[in-house]
Design brief:
Helices cover about 25% and strands about 25% of the residues. By secondary structure, it is α+β, with helices and mostly antiparallel strands.
Length: about 260
């Protein structure tokens, strides 16, 4: 899985972010156009290259927005190793039988292709409605982003996953490489939603999906032929099964954590 520990490095602040990362836009601009001759992206899927132009929210270590940068800039290991950090979310969708919907990421994905992971994991964008400096606003922003991405990746309509049904549990701060070039360094908002949904996978995003019970997922982890995203395994190994046990009773005590779990 690679190390997920946050290593000693320069602390990124609003005062030094532009000096350290000239590609960050400190005004939270809404567009970051990637060069058409970008050597970092040569050979990848055309649609996934386009998505690398999306605008991520750049953070300091306390989850305060201090700028924005393209998805590409935020996921290059050369920037991650210098401390560049962005906001993300992970959705865990359970049906009425308490089965968790998993997806296997498409081979076309630039980061972590072919790996099994939770229902949906992506980023709120640096656009109105998905940003937020205070925790309450940030949570509402990631809810909107989650609704958008569940539709884009799995064809789940917004009416089946209303914003107020997403339950925010906590935030995790982790770092993980995908390969030598790409990786993740995120403060990841964990959202749980219980809903019976219709879903049709977007093949450019998702190559497979299935519902699992706890015992099914544990068996998958024992199968050496399967690969899992680092954030998913991290959450499973520390918190998920305990939350799962309390889906119908007692989940309230896990909701709305104000601290950030440093993984």
């Amino acid at each position: 899985m690679g190390s997920t520990a946050t290593e000693t490095q320069t602390t990124i602040t609003a005062d030094n972010v532009l000096r350290l990362f000239p590609d960050v836009n400190t005004s939270l601009a809404s567009t970051h156009r990637a060069p058409t001759t970008d050597s970092d992206l040569q050979g990848y899927d055309e649609e996934q290259i386009r998505l690398m132009e999306e605008v991520c929210i750049v953070l300091d270590n306390d989850d305060n927005p201090i700028g924005s940068a393209s998805k590409k800039v935020c996921h290059l290991m050369k920037n991650i190793d210098q401390g560049l950090l962005h906001r993300a979310f992970s959705v865990f969708l359970f049906d009425s039988n308490n089965r968790l919907l998993l997806q296997q990421r498409a081979s076309e994905k630039i980061t972590f292709p072919d790996m099994w992971t939770n229902t949906c994991c992506s980023h709120p964008l640096g656009v109105p409605g998905e940003t937020g400096a205070e925790l309450e606003d940030a949570v509402q922003g990631v809810r909107r982003a989650a609704q958008r991405k569940l539709d884009q990746e799995l064809g789940i309509q917004a009416k089946q996953v209303p914003l107020d049904k997403f339950q925010f549990l906590t935030r995790i701060h982790y770092k993980a490489p995908s390969d030598g070039k790409w990786g993740e360094h995120e403060i990841d908002y964990i959202l749980i939603i219980k809903a019976d949904v219709d879903h049709t996978a977007n093949p450019n995003e998702v190559q497979d999906s299935k519902y699992v019970r706890q015992e099914d997922l544990r068996k998958m982890f024992q199968d050496g032929s399967l690969k899992f995203t680092p954030w998913f395994k991290l959450i499973c190994n520390t918190m998920l099964f305990e939350w799962w046990d309390h889906l119908d009773e007692g989940l309230e005590k896990y909701k709305g954590e104000t601290g950030i779990r440093r993984m």
